[in-house]
Amino acid sequence: MTTDDAVRQIMDSLDDRVEIARRVAQLGLPDCWIGAGFVRNAVWDALHRHPRPTPLNDVDVVYHDRADTSYASEAALAALVHRDFPSERFSFRNQARMHHRNGHPPYSSSADAISQWTETCTAVAVAWTGSSFDVLAPHGLDDLFALVVRPTSPDIELGRLVARRVEEKKWLSTWPLLRLEAPLTSPDMA
Fold first, then answer.
1. Per-residue confidence band for 104, with pLDDT thresholds at 50, 70 and 90
2. 19: helix, coil or strand?
3. DSSP secondary structure string for all residues of 128-149
4. What per-residue confidence (pLDDT) applies to 1?
5. Do the domain assignments include residue 98?
6. Integer Rg of the chain from CA
7. Which of 55, 145, 159, 171 could form a disulfide with 183 if both were Cys (CB 3.0 to 4.6 A apart)?
8. pLDDT of 39 strictly over 60
9. Is 163 contained in some domain?
């Protein structure tokens, strides 16, 4: 079994995530994926043998649409899907505009944008195909399945950001088998 297959198997076993992915797919957004904790947490929960899925902070939906880069469209999409899943918080982000916020050159696709996310294990997304999930992992899935938290680049500031995220989100309390890999530095280090 490939790691792509393992992600599919884990995601297919979570009825709530399948229903969310089906609903998002019905929107017909271009180059649309659900990523970050939606996938990462499910895999980590399975590897830690958690009896129930860890609650999601939010559902990160990304798409790439140069035709409408308005924030209002993103907010409308989130409100629309939230009506069907009122216990979930949705974050829709059009990656055709997110480069402005992130200080990067324009992203050519959702995959390009996801490759810039903070950790390799977080730079993972899925899309509902009608019968299962497609998997998008610009940095591969090795770190995700090895329970390794590693920045997507060697930039020291990114390492500090990752260290802060691990601490603030209490990842090590929730998933104690995680391993933090360089170049992480403590957020209070100069």
1. confident
2. helix
3. E-SSSEEEE-TT-SHHHHHTEE
4. 80
5. yes
6. 16
7. 159
8. yes
9. no
Q: What is the CATH number of the domain that holds 84?
A: 3.30.460
Peptide bond just before 183 cis, omega within 30 deg: yes
Q: Domain total for the chain? A: 1
Q: Is the pLDDT of residue 160 over 70?
A: yes
- Asked if residues 120 and 89 have their Cβ atoms less than 8 Å apart, the reply is no
**Single pTM value for the model:** 0.92
DSSP 66: T
**Would you say residue 132 lies in a domain?**
yes
3-state SS class at 127: strand
Residue type, 95: Q
Is residue 46, in this structure, part of any structural domain at all? yes
Amino acid letter, 154: P
Range of the domain at 112: 3-144
Q: Find the DSSP H helices in the chain.
A: 3-12, 15-26, 37-47, 71-84, 98-102, 110-114, 142-146, 156-168, 171-174
Instruction: Quick: pLDDT tens for 40-93.
Output: 999 999 999 999 999 999 999 999 999 998 999 999 999 999 999 999 999 999
16 vs 23, 64, 87, 120, 142, CA distance in Å? 11, 25, 11, 25, 25
Task: From 61, 162, 153, select the one nearest 104 (Cα to Cα).
Answer: 153
Q: Cα separation of 167 and 171, whole Å?
A: 7
